[in-house]
Amino acid sequence: MKNTDNKNCALILGATSDIGREIAEELSSKNFDLILTGQNKDLLSQIHSDLLRTTKQDIKIQTHLLDITETDGLTSFVLSLDPLPNIVFCCIGYYKDQKIARVKPEEFTKTIQINFTGIATFLNLLTIRMEEIRSGKIVVISSVAGVRGRQLNYIYGSAKAGLTTYLSGLRNLLHKKNIRITTVLLGPVFTKMSAGHNLMPWITLQPKVAAKKIVQAGLKGKDEVYIHWIWQFIMAAIRMIPEGIFKRLPPF
Q1: Are 116 and 159 in contact (CB under 8 A)?
Q2: Which residues have C-beta within 8 Å of that of residue 182, sequence separation ≥ 6?
Q3: How far is CA 80 from the centre of its chain?
Q4: Residue 4: pLDDT above 60?
Q5: 123-151 pLDDT, tens per residue?
Q6: Cα–Cα–Cα angle for 114, 118, 123, rounded to 5 degrees
Q7: Alpha-carbon Rg for the chain in angstroms
């Protein structure tokens, strides 16, 4: 993507997700040019059209089909970014019935690949390029599910735990090179991915609210943030429960 001026440009991975779409709208209102990725061509096209129709800013929008689990495609996509975006938002996530993931190896592997290894592979490629220019911000949505393993979602949670740890190390590595890594520890949000789950409204955010908070944290270059403040205290309490007691608790 050639950009002859100095206008800010944002790359959104998983732009077809509910949160990704809201982040795109938030950034378009801030006059960012956008590079949107996803796996659904028709939905990407629809989002592209909606943004151009509703935004009051003069922005450029590109869309790209991208599968986070296909390494060759990730390599060619990263090399095609010219210049690199100023900020990258990763909204990719995958969550299906964890009972199925436990007994079906292909579902287990898919959960790990999409939520951890695919994202980490992409960020390895991207940050090597960012190191060359010593600039950039990356904002990745992880999850409170990765703070401690719970029987209801420990497969998904283990992938997010790996992602959170990876981002911590990457942040440590790149801090002196002016590259900021923001880890978003997201709690439940009312999205397509959470449909069918018995979510409690008082601890669950709407996608638009979550997106505004994520964009704000990313632009400020925060390190690790709980988007909904209450989850910081909930997870602190959960971490303090001794393992001998924790393993005997009913599912929650």
Answers
A1: yes
A2: 137, 138, 139, 140, 217, 218, 221, 222, 223, 224, 225
A3: 21
A4: no
A5: 999 999 999 999 999 999 999 999 999 99
A6: 135
A7: 18
C-alpha span between 231 and 30 (Å, rounded)? 28
Strands (E) located in 56-208: 61-65, 87-90, 136-143, 179-186
Tokens of 16: 């077809």
pLDDT tens digits for range 212-246: 999 999 999 999 999 999 999 999 999 999 999 99
Q: 């955010």: which residue's tokens?
A: 205
Q: Are 20 and 192 in contact (CB under 8 A)?
A: no
Cα separation, 44 vs 251, in Å, equals 37
Taking each helix axis as running N to C, give the angle between helix 71-80 and helix 118-133, from 0 to 180 degrees, rounded to the nearest 10. Answer: 20
Kindly report which listed range (43-47, 53-57, 167-171, 174-178) carries the lowest average pLDDT score.
53-57
The DSSP code for 114 is I
d(CA 113, CA 116): 6
Residue 96 pLDDT class (50, 70, 90 cuts) = confident
Q: Which of 96, 31, 37, 32 is nearest to 68 (CA)?
A: 37
